[in-house]
Amino acid sequence: MIPPEIKLKLLLNILEEISEKYDEILKENKKLLKELHKQATTDHLTGLLNRRALLEALRKEVERIKGSNRKNTLCLCFMDLDNFKLINDTFGHAEGDKVLKAFASILRETLKSYDIVGRWGGDEFVAGVINCENFDNPEICKTCPYYHKILEEVKKMGKCYAISLGVSCGVAKIPTETEDLDEALRIADRRLYKAKKEGKGKVVID
Asked: How many domains does the chain contain in total?
């Protein structure tokens, strides 16, 4: 007959093994969920937010602005790489993918860590610049320091391919112009088209 203290010790050992196994499974599940979330929200090529996650993040920020009595602001920037098609046509799509990845890195390095940045599709990107210090200064906005830093880096990249790469940008301001995200996207997109039509390589804010 097994003494009670031995039975208790065996039981404790079994419980400890079960507990360790459960913790291991839980840890693996958390890791898997984190990976699945990343896949669901990240653009597979650039590592930026994908379109769906980008829209969700922007909507949350717009709601935050509405709840702050307009104290917070958002510059919604629609960006497009000028002459990007020449990269694909001349060097192939693999090289074009490298340029898109590099552009994504430029955006991450130039904008603040809490700004919202994502790939809209193709060579179009959207950035939500939160509480920009130049929000109420239209003259500085027209020569946006962020934009020109991005533009200069893209131009340097273009020189490596002997192609005049650039960036066109259309901006809508929330909440001064609209508090509706869809409307802001339409405004920014329309201004991006205007920037392209007026010769590319510029930012249009009105």
From this structure: 2
The radius of gyration of the chain from alpha carbons, rounded to an integer in Å, stands at: 24
Does 73 share its domain with 122? yes
Residue 17 belongs to what domain range?
Answer: 1-41
Q: Distance between CA atoms of 198 and 195, rounded to whole angstroms?
A: 5
Same domain membership, residue 118 and residue 183: yes
Hey, what are 152's tokens?
A: 């200069």
Q: Give the residue with greater pLDDT, 27 vs 143.
A: 143
Q: Are residues 79 and 31 in the same domain?
A: no
Mean pLDDT of 163-183: 96
CA dist., res. 76 & res. 171, Å (int): 5
Separation CA 205–CA 74 (nearest Å): 13
Max CA separation in the chain (angstroms): 94
Residues in the chain, how many? 206
Give the model confidence (pLDDT) of 74-119 as tens digits.
999 999 999 999 999 999 999 999 999 999 999 999 999 999 999 9
pLDDT band at 160; cut points 50, 70, 90? very high
CA-wise closest residue to 149 among 95, 83, 193, 103: 103
Residue 35 and residue 131: Cα distance in Å, rounded? 31
Residues 6+ apart with CB under 8 A from 190: 170
